[in-house]
Amino acid sequence: MTRKTLFAVLALVSVVAMLAAQCPMPGQPAENKLEIFSWWTGGGEADGLAQMFKIYSQKYPNVEIINATVAGGAGSNAKAVLKTRMLGGDPPDSFQVHAGMEIADWVKAGKMEPLDDLYKSEGWDKVFPKDLLDILLVDGHYYSVPVNIHRSNVLWYNKKIFAANNLTAPKTFDDFFKVAEALKAKGITPLALGDNGPWAAAHLFEDVLAGTLGQEGYNGLWTGKTSWADPKVTQALETFKKMLQYVNEDHSALSWDQAAQYVIDGKAAMTIMGDWTDGYFVSKKFTDYGWAPSPGTEGIFVMLSDSFGLPKGAPHRENAINWLKVCGSFEGQEAFNPLKGSIPARTDGGKAQYDDYLKSAMKDWATNKLCPSVAHGAAAPEGWATAYVDAIGVFVTKQDVAATQAALVQACKDAGVCK
To answer: pLDDT band at residue 13, thresholds of 50, 70 and 90?
Structure first.
């Protein structure tokens, strides 16, 4: 063998060794990991996620769990990071997504695995309620596993402030403005808002829409049955504009949980936010709070659900499938939801370990009319939901009713729903 040939062989052996180190050969064990991508970073949500991790680790003790979280309410920051990873061919093993239409864009892009077989083998098609199963379907298939049910339209209030001022929780918008005026006259901020992520203002407005149009009218906005040019949409925008007169001046600098903290600290009397607020209050050991449906929405449950999907090309696919099994299991949901401030997606969940608010939410979930949240991915695909959030974000600053309504009309047209 010549010296030149010898060097060539040695170089080839070096390359093969390097590739073997980077990519296990057939029959060699791959890294036994599980990367879970979410936006659950604080309060009850992080505590609940930790409990599901604990259950997973008990079942699969040799798997290293990578908790890949990106802070930001409603996933506002996480979704941008996820998009970069998914389009770059670097998906996590499983990622958090709001159940419903939010996952539709990834499905249409061919980035998700259908989970129909898992639904059948785990019996989820029998233990998840039909209304939820209908919301989960995308092009006739299931692509994510719900871990909970949240309610969007909840008005939370500081009971001491209300008692000291002889006030009761407002049921109508007229009631709300009377209460707000009474509080303002006493130098108390009536309504805490934290919209440094614009989704929070969009969340508040979806509840105003539901309270103004009712269940049928609200749901029609997302199917084309209700026009965004409808006078009741104009009325909802006018009501929202008036409500903004009673929020804290520093709202754009606060997150949703910082706004909730204002209620704890007595800096504000009320906040309208989803029932993860209950989980936040519990994590802060705050008990002196009351709740009611947001104005005009008694008998309506504006719902959303956190879920996890399986991306195509997941690095540790089998571990990810086992994670989804935990997410949909009785054990996983019972460990997660009391801490998160949500109720189980399963119909066979227990009640003993849930607090009074969550027990009331279970009762309302079973009896109320349902509306899907747009700010949290249930009502509209990501592009349309983003256009909606952007329009409301501009409205909070400029408060131009006509321009905002025109933008919402155009967003519906762009989504291919409205003519």
So the answer is: very low
- Coil, strand or helix: which one is 216? helix
Span 187-221, pLDDT tens digits: 999 999 999 988 999 999 999 999 999 999 999 99
Query: Structure tokens of 19?
Result: 């590739």
Across 387-412, average pLDDT: 98
Distances (CA, A) of 192 to 144, 203, 222, 315, 419: 33, 13, 28, 43, 37
| Amino acid sitting at position 351 | K
Q: Please, which pLDDT band fits residue 7 given cuts at 50, 70 and 90?
A: very low
Q: What are 33's strand-pairing partners?
A: 64
Measured in degrees and rounded to the nearest 5, phi and psi for residue 189 equal -65, 120
Sheet strands (E) in 115-177: 137-138, 141-142, 144-146, 150-151, 154-158
CATH topology of domain 151-303+374-414: D-Maltodextrin-Binding Protein; domain 2 (3.40.190)
pLDDT digits (tens, 9 = 90+) for 118-135: 999 999 999 998 888 988
The end-to-end CA distance of the chain, in Å, is 77
Residue 152's nearest CA partner among 414, 6, 342, 412 is 342
**How distant, in Å, are the alpha carbons of 99, 139, 198, 274, 285 from that of 375?**
12, 22, 10, 11, 28
Half-sphere exposure of 39 (CA within 13 A, CB side): 18
Q: Where are the domains of the chain?
A: 33-149+305-367, 151-303+374-414
Which CATH number fits the domain 33-149+305-367, given the four candidates 3.30.10.20, 3.40.190.10, 3.40.309.10, 3.40.50.1820? 3.40.190.10
Q: Fold match between 33-149+305-367 and 151-303+374-414?
A: yes
> What pLDDT score was predicted for residue 395?
98
